[in-house]
Amino acid sequence: MTADASFWIVQTLNALQLSMLLFLLSVGLTVIFGLLHFVNLAHGSLYALGAFVGVSASAFAGSYWAAFAVAPVAVALVGIVLYVALIRRMRNAGPMNQVLVTFGLIFVFLDLFRLGWGDIPLGMAEPDLFSGRTEFLGIVYPTYRLFIIGLGLVVLAALSLLLSRTQLGAIVRAGVDNGDMAACLGINVERVFFVVFCLGCALAGLAGAVAAPVLSVTTDMGTAILIPTLVVVVIGGLGSLRGAIAGSLLIGFVQTFGAVLAPQAAAVAVYALLAVVLILRPAGLFPARG
Amino acid sequence: MLEIEDLHAGYGETWVTHGLSLSVAPGRVLAVLGRNGVGKSTTLKAIMGLLGSVRGTIRFDGRPLLGLPPYRIATLGIAYVPETRDIFPSLTVRENLELAARRFGRPDGAWTLERVLDLFPRLRERLDNGGTQLSGGEQQMLAIARALLMNPRLLILDEPTEGLAPIVVQSIHAVLDGLRGEGLSMLLVEQNFGFATSLADEVRVMGRGTVVWAGSPADIRADTAVQAQWLGV
């Protein structure tokens, strides 16, 4: 099986698809982390919320694209409520309290999902535009999964440009480098944080809606993805876009190829990788602070 | 212009300044001298709103600064050049400058990108370099240039000559002397006695978290007892 070229192509595409989902989640988390050292463990729950909202929106409107449009906006709005009600107050409460509060939020979301959508796994239809399969390079691959890879790459390119070429990007980089000095130049770091937080929430919601047609939508999907996402953030380096890209690809490939090549070791492969990176590069592969 | 009265500032439970008072008059340069650890940098951080533990009064143009966030204090017209320079390593030299220029540059503003580059020609050659690729002297020039682009009414400098080669110290001196000639108000914290006293209109000496001596540059040059006791010159 493994000698067959099509096997490697298919698994590479699977790995890329997982990497892109991890990227959409980890990029928001890592920049929020880097900018104001805030630990938001409920980020995975926002991803699940995106999936549930997506399921309802597509069922209501009868179109996948309703989910695609509504989920990021709805999750960003929930993010604003969370920010105003909780996160702003927890800004100076220290990492332990932040971890405890956002950890508690995970359970709040879990029960809200149960109340709202029940415990039965839900599904969502692919968009007609990307349904079916595509033949290329001698393989047949689900078209929608190619769409996920493409979307991930588009978001990645857009964020790279935003961070490297725009004034907002320069402000975010300055804030991650040294928030105090950025403030001394008249930058309202708190407001930048709010904008970035909303953007991170929207991307988590988008990831949920995009993942819904390929994964079954369950109440615990947010907690399931939280651990690999945190691993991505730590491996890549806190606050670093390049780190989020590299970490997502690394974890996506290790997890996918681990599962097919060495199933018995797959469960520990990601953690072994984490341990190796932490020993060799304690600040991650691409630390944001030089 | 800047008045500090009975300032107690520190970090958490540790207080570093004890009832410090000083003031900077418009268009004047105040130099604050003193050994390491007497609270000079702490005082500057307190002015910029960077410290959690602060009591007393700090006023800028009569307006109380205590409790304001740093970005509001900066917007009021105070530019800060910290001891560690704090160039943003992820930004190029140009981006470091533009970050300050875009927020404060006004059409009629005195300082533009072109003008600070004329002042520090070395930076013009380095515009597209990363912030970390600069020498210590270039970082100090960039920190001062960045502060000037905020078109401040008060410039605060924390040991601008620390760790720099004599030739760089000379060029920084020439720049600050020029700014003084243009009537920019400055608060200069230094350990370099000659540098500070040649620029200042007024001198304060700090010891044990408060002002222990006040006078003119000429007075302190003549007062070897004060120099020996508080500065170790």
What report would you give on this structure?
The complex is a heterodimer of chains A (290) and B (233). With 290 residues, chain A is mostly helical. Chain A has a domain at 17-118 and 125-218. In chain A, 74% of the residues lie in helices and 3% in strands. In chain A, strands 1-2 form a two-stranded antiparallel sheet. In chain A, a hairpin with a 2-residue loop joins strand 1 and strand 2 (139-142). In chain A, helix 1 runs antiparallel to helix 10 (241-261), helix 3 packs antiparallel against helix 8 and helix 9 (221-236) packs across helix 10 (241-261). The mean pLDDT of chain B is 92. In chain B, the strands form two sheets. A six-stranded mixed β-sheet of chain B has the order 7-8-9-4-10-11, with helices on both faces. In chain B, strands 1, 2, 3, 5 and 6 form a five-stranded antiparallel β-sheet that branches. In chain B, helix 3 runs parallel beside helix 6. Helix content of chain B is 38%, strand content 25%. The two termini of chain B are 31 Å apart. The longest helix of chain B has 16 residues, at 166-181. Chain B is α/β, with parallel strands linked by helices. Classes of the chains: A mainly alpha (290), B alpha/beta (233).
